[in-house]
Design a protein that fits this description.
The protein has 447 residues and is α/β, with parallel strands linked by helices. It contains 14 helices and 19 strands. Strands 2-1-3-4-5-6 form a six-stranded parallel β-sheet, sandwiched between helices. A six-stranded parallel β-sheet has the order 7-10-11-12-13-14. α13 runs parallel beside α14.
């Protein structure tokens, strides 16, 4: 006889990117609505769901280690079952079952909507596997917000068509699909009704939004529709590609006061030979032109970017070009990663693979350059007053902390606030006079 769902406690672990987090929030909603009890601690759970990341080697290792940690609870505590979902399970279907016998159910990226069926099965000590078509799966739906009440992610599309030679995302997430504009606008209205003040638009490539549904890039129209339909929430755009920055989008940035002047623009490299081997769309000229156009159209905009070092065949000269570019362009926010050799991607079989220590040395040098740039840019902010969204209190620093418009959640720095005018309210804005600059963070007082 099946146990009462209300008697079963289910916990979730969400790993990887913000897009994964949205999928986890959707599953949380489905599980709660089905009558299961949601718990926040794994030691209290009867069933644990791990929404995995499988993008690069370090992410895969984190996902596997998480499952192994839960396996200990399964053996020594009252945890009954482990359900694995997400990118790792989509990418390594048979390997998970063969190498992780502790796992009781596996769902691919097209099967999030079947999470309740999976939990029903494992509670009854049955294995459950589902790998539905990832190219036609649900992309929206009601969810339980897990971030702070004032900031949330809004997924506007799924999958990717860019086919970069180092990337397994198309294999894992499928082809690019835009969500219908009306559906996204409804969700934005709902988010604002929940108290969200900052809506972060996400997809593998937000700049391509609409081309599959409407025949042209429509990100600018989507942004305007959202701000026309909501009252006060601000929008932040992440993951825009340099070759797809339209004039219409730049006009929206310049004219829409509720569109945060912040753009995430992953370049990955600047050497034309490396970009060609990566199969990136657009060469160094396109990248430089995009940066110049953005800064010309939106003075003061915060630009964030990323790069990969140690890609197969990257010469010392290629790397020096990247270093020089970072010094020249001076991104406000910048992150770099060493190339991860991923099976089933074209670059896996490329010749001239780079030694791991060389990759790490290049990464260290590049990030040292950026640290100096960031510190210098931060020093220029001393004496200015910034509007900061207060997000927490750090008892060690004895200070509140938050973010300005120039800081995206989860990936950028913080502004620490010495409250000299009484306690601050989390989720509210404070005017902060910047008094001190760190490498990536700022320190100030509320005024």
């Amino acid at each position: 006889m099946m146990l009462s769902r209300a008697s079963i406690a289910v916990g979730f672990v969400s790993l990887g990117c913000s897009k994964n987090k949205v999928n986890t929030e959707r599953m949380l909603y489905l599980v709660r609505e089905a009558g299961y009890r949601i718990v926040s601690e794994d030691v209290d759970a009867d069933v644990m769901v791990v929404n995995t990341c499988g993008f690069i080697e370090s992410a895969k290792r984190e996902s596997i280690d998480t499952v192994l940690d839960l396996a200990w609870l399964k053996e020594h505590r009252h945890l009954r079952a482990i359900v694995v979902t997400g990118c790792l399970s989509e990418r390594y279907r048979t390997e998970i079952l063969d190498q992780l016998p502790e796992v009781d159910a596996v769902l691919g990226t097209g099967s999030y909507e079947r999470i309740v069926e999976a939990i029903d099965a494992v509670v009854e000590k049955k294995r459950f596997l589902s790998f539905d078509d990832k190219n036609v799966c649900e992309m929206g739906g009601e969810r339980i917000l897990t971030d702070t009440p004032w900031s949330a992610y809004l997924k506007i599309g799924e999958g990717c068509n860019n086919r970069c030679t180092y990337c397994a995302i198309p294999l894992i997430r499928g082809v690019y699909r835009s969500r219908p504009m009306e559906e996204i606008v409804r969700e934005a209205v709902w988010l604002e009704d929940q108290g969200v003040k900052e809506i972060n638009l996400i997809a593998q490539d937000t700049s391509i939004y609409g081309v599959d549904l409407y025949g042209s890039y429509r990100l600018h129209e989507l942004i305007r529709r959202i701000t026309d339909s909501t009252a006060h929430a601000c929008l932040r755009v992440l993951y825009c590609y340099p070759d797809k920055i339209t004039n219409e989008l730049l006009h929206e940035f310049a004219s829409n006061p509720r569109l945060i002047p912040y753009l995430d623009l992953p370049v990955q490299h600047i050497s034309d030979s490396v970009l060609a081997r990566m199969n990136r769309h657009g060469d160094s000229g396109v990248i430089r032109d995009a940066v110049a156009r953005i800064r010309r159209a939106v003075p003061g905009i915060t630009l964030r970017s990323t790069a990969i070092v140690g890609f197969p065949g990257e010469t010392g000269e290629d790397f020096e070009k990247l270093c020089d570019f970072i010094k020249e362009v001076r991104f406000d926010r910048f992150g770099a990663f060493t190339y991860s050799r991923e099976e089933d991607t074209p670059a896996y079989d490329f010749e001239d693979q780079i030694d791991e220590q060389v990759k790490l040395d290049r990464l260290d040098r590049l990030m040292s350059i950026q640290m100096e740039i960031s510190a210098e840019l931060n020093r220029k902010k001393i004496g200015s007053t910034l509007r900061v969204l207060v997000e927490g209190y750090d008892p060690v620093a004895e200070a509140y902390f938050g973010r300005s418009a120039a800081d995206a959640p989860d990936i950028d720095g913080k502004i620490f606030i010495r409250a000299k005018k009484g306690a601050l309210t989390l989720g509210e804005f404070a005017d902060v006079l910047i008094e001190e600059a760190l490498d990536y963070d700022l320190v100030g007082v509320n005024v």
